[in-house]
Amino acid sequence: DLAEDREKFDALLEKLGIKRPKGFAVHTESEAIATAEAIGYPVLLRPSYVIGGQNMRIVYTKEETERYMRRIFSEGVKNSVLIDKYMSGTELEVDVISDGENVLIPGVMEHVERAGVHSGDSIAVYPPYNLNDKMMKTIVDSSVSLAKSLGTKGLVNIQYLIYGGELYVIEVNPRASRTVPYISKITGVPMADVASEVMLGKKLTELPYGTGLYKTPPYYAVKVPVFSFEKLSDVNSYLGPEMKSTGEVLGLGVTLEEALFKGLTSAGMVVRTERGRKQGVLLSADTHDQREIVGLAKKFIDLGFKIYATPETAETVKSLGESVTVINSIKEKGGAYELMENKKISYVVYTGALSDETTMDYIALHRKALALSVPCFTSLDTANALTDVIKARYNLFNTELVDINHMRQQKTKVTFSKMEATGDDYIFIDNRDGKITCPESLCIKLCSRHYGIGGYGIVLIENSKICDVKMTVYNKDGSIGSVAGNSIRSVGKFVYDEGIVDKENITVEMGGRVCELTLYTRFGKVNYVSAHMGKPEFNPENIPCTLPGDKIVDYPYVVGGEEYKITCLSLGNPHCVVFVPSTDGVDVQKTGPLFENADIFPERTNTEFVRVVNENTIKMRVYERGNGETYACGSGACAAVVAATELGYLKKGRDVTVKVKGGDLQVNYSDDGLTLSGDTVLVYKGEFEF
Q1: How far apart are CA 635 and CA 469, in angstroms?
Q2: CATH of the structural domain 540-678, one choice from 3.20.20.140, 3.90.1170.10, 3.40.50.300, 3.10.310.10
Q3: Each residue of 60-86: b (16+ CB within 10 Å) or e?
Q4: For residue 184, how many other CB atoms are within 10 A of its CB?
Q5: Read out DSSP for 183-215?
Q6: Contact 81, 54 (CB under 8 A)
Q7: Nearest to 355 by CA among 45, 41, 58, 47
Q8: What's the rounded Cα separation, in Å, for the pair 545 and 410?
């Protein structure tokens, strides 16, 4: 009763010096109105002694308070109604085990959604991603004090709120919570077992898990709620203080975005992160959310989304200077239904449908979206988290498959070399011991130029049964790059300089083929490498390309409403070469993705925009699949020379200089195949943890 009785609980908090949102208990409608106005709107209303957030509401006006109180009393509620100041801050959840003397805190979880969404309907993240060490210490100290003061032996769940840089207690429950299984799995602390032993008389100091805050494992974990709205189609799915979820899933990842992607996908949400696919989002925000909708809209616009919005929201978004398509109706022609059916809208963000005249419209919209697998969000925080996941570009093929029964308990250290060849920079790792099992996932984190090492991808050096070494290239989006002309030259330098090979003519297994390298050394180090890249493949089926014919040379093809002459070939990876009057005049960021994701390329393609300077020189810009525009592409330079030779611009057997953003490459195309030559540089060595 100490945790539930308002007066007793307030006295305990005052004694401990812990804050809570201002609140009072009332028994009449007039008391409720007066109290709400005294506290200041918005306020949280709820009957005392309820679970699951039943009948909880956030209200913003006197009229809403009146409606709420009349409905509560009409339902025969006899207990007092609690009125608390609603603070839209960061909500936290802490599960502790107390033996009456000491306290163990296996973990602290931070909610993605701000206070106001029931904890069971919120996405909870462990470890917390927005807490500094000072605030964490305050949380730990407060949790220990509360657990001891309650006198509970066993599990205690505490919910906190951070608002204005201050910590507030929302509620304390002397029982297990739904987060216990998740914290137990990710930390390895069997919380139910430990609590049971404590309840039977054992001390925490007698058990192997210690006291205080438990160590953090090398993963992010997210608890994502699962809903059953497809079975309960007439239920209002708007998320608020009243719990509506019917289950939960766990997502694990090296980064928060990877864990979120896994969690959202496992909960049944279709998360589309591929680039080049035109996507749209419908935004409809309540009046009090208009200021925040601008930031969310900007995120979607930066990701290439087309914005559709209801009238008030459209006017707000237009302040960004961006075009917005106004949606005046849900069901009428040109409205939300039609746009979703025509796959113009990939996501719906809709707030303000809790208790006004738009509620039935939202229920109908949500029902239609469910039928079309279009995710709906009623929290701007969840939608913001979604944009971070989309930006990170995780998908089903570049996420780590984590064995939940054999998770790493500490971070793994890996040494690396950052290398570049004509600005084509990659992260090179000796993986002959097989330490790295999911490089696809690591690419997203490590290749970020602002939050990681930076580079166009990762190259793993591995053992080979047929060559001196094997190399595997992963693009920065985690996709496998089968052939990489510049990277293979850097591999030559890496394996020689690191003492893995001790000869100047070596073979490297790359993309299922054997490549011969000639290493040029100076003072015991390699600085220049020639790589034999094999012969080009023109058969469209082997590129692959779905255009008709035996050879695609100077073929007219329309992309983005403009006709181009394209030449398609493969060097172990697909290439589409386009000759242009000026490479500087090409909008590569706009046109490149259109070529990369064109329907005629089932495995996507690399696209080279080329200008012939003279019979010995060409200039090239390249848009690589999975990487975007890069400073250089070795196989792309080779493809450009082959295409120029096929069209009679160049002659076979000559050294051709290919000028790219990162410098010059030398390509020789003869009847024996292609040879690619150029410098390769070690930028620096380092160590990272994951």
Answers
A1: 20
A2: 3.10.310.10
A3: eeeebbbebbeebeeeebeeebbbbbb
A4: 18
A5: HHHHH---HHHHHHHHHTT--GGGSTT-SEEPP
A6: no
A7: 58
A8: 46
Count of positions (residues) in the chain: 690
Residue 166 neighbours by CB distance under 10 Å = 12
Strand partners, 251: 222
pLDDT tens track for 397-456: 999 999 988 888 889 999 999 999 999 999 999 999 999 999 999 999 999 999 999 999
Q: Is the peptide bond before 556 cis (omega within 30 degrees of 0)?
A: no
Q: Which residue has the tokens 């006004």?
A: 356
Angular region, 511: left φ>0, alpha ψ -120 to 50, beta rest: left
| CB distance 468 to 453 below 8 Å | no
DSSP 327: -
Among the listed residues 181, 219, 186, 139, the one whose alpha carbon sits nearest the alpha carbon of residue 195: 181
Q: Is 650 helix (H, G, I), strand (E, B) or coil?
A: coil
Burial of 644 (0-12, 13-18, 19+ CB in 10 A): buried
Q: Does domain 90-217 have CATH number 3.40.50.720?
A: no
> Regarding the domain delimited by 22-85, which CATH topology (the fold level of the hierarchy) does it fall under?
Dna Ligase; domain 1 (3.30.1490)
Contact 250, 185 (CB under 8 A): yes
Cα 352 to Cα 358: distance, rounded to the nearest angstrom? 8
Give tens-digit pLDDT for 144-186: 999 999 988 999 999 999 999 999 999 898 888 889 999 999 9
- DSSP H/E element including 498: none
Task: Work out the angle at residue 357's Cα, subtended by the Cα atoms of residues 354 and 360, and round it to the nearest 5 degrees.
Answer: 75
Angle between helices 180-187 and 191-199 (to 10 degrees): 110
**C-beta separation of 392 from 251 below 8 A:** no
CA distance 105 to 103: 7
Amino acid 62 reads K
What are the structure tokens assigned to 142, written together? 């407060």
Residues in CB range of 12: below 8 A, 6 or more apart: 2, 146, 149
> How many alpha carbons fall within 13 Å on the CB side of residue 40?
3
- Asked if domains 413-529 and 540-678 share a fold, the reply is yes
What is the homologous superfamily of the domain 271-392 according to CATH? Methylglyoxal synthase-like domain (3.40.50.1380)
pLDDT per residue over 350-402, tens digit each? 986 444 556 677 778 888 888 898 999 989 999 999 999 999 989 999 999 99
- 109 near 179, Cβ under 8 Å? yes
Domain ranges in the chain?
22-85, 90-217, 271-392, 413-529, 540-678
Measured between alpha carbons, how far is residue 537 from residues 35, 407, 641 in Å? 79, 44, 14
What secondary structure letter does DSSP report for 19? B
Instruction: Characterize the bridge pairing of strands 124-126 and 103-111.
Output: antiparallel
Q: Can you tell me the distance from the alpha carbon of 491 to that of 426, in angstroms, rounded to the nearest whole number?
A: 10
Q: For residues 330 and 368, what is the distance between their CA atoms, to the nearest angstrom? A: 10
